[in-house]
Amino acid sequence: MANIIIFGGHGRVALLLEPILAARGDTVTAVIRNASHAAEVAAAGAAPLVADIEQLDVDALAGLIEGHDAVVWSAGAGGGDPARTRAVDQEAAIRTMEAAARAGVQRYVMVSYFGASPDHGIDPGHPFFPYAKAKAAADEYLRASSLDWTVLGPSTLTFAEPSGRIDAEAGESAEVSRANVALTVAATLADERTIRRTIRFNDGDTPIAAALRA
User: What residues pair up with 200 in beta bridges, in sequence order?
Assistant: First the structure.
């Protein structure tokens, strides 16, 4: 059993992840920006914590993280505004990494996306470019840190039912259900062999735990 804090606790993946963690006995804190989401998060099995991560500095974030065993970053600005995308997906994410280190919480799982890379190849004029740039910067900062990190790179997200099976060896992005992403985050937190690995995945035929071991 672990004490886990999730940033982006009202996101679609997080709301699927929280009951999985709670069912196996983990204690889950869900950081949310909007207090009106607290009841939904609580119903999913997590303790809601209202905080605006865009505004909090490293010390304040360390105060939130302190006492937990692991951090999951599943937050995002949602696109649309390049300045806010940078503020949340890059700058706030990096502050939580620094805060985790300051709080002595080593385990950090980043939910990124399949194509995230400094060589993402997105044209600067494309609306997706600010997000691609922000995620690449955050992922690279995490990989260079002293944390026990895992970067998860799911492909295009769907609302399909969970199969419990993924392909973590695919060379190209396809699709993966949000439910399988949630199951993969949970399995990653339980498997130390995923530490310091970047795992890109689609829906597939291999049971998630076995796919993560490969």
Answer: 153
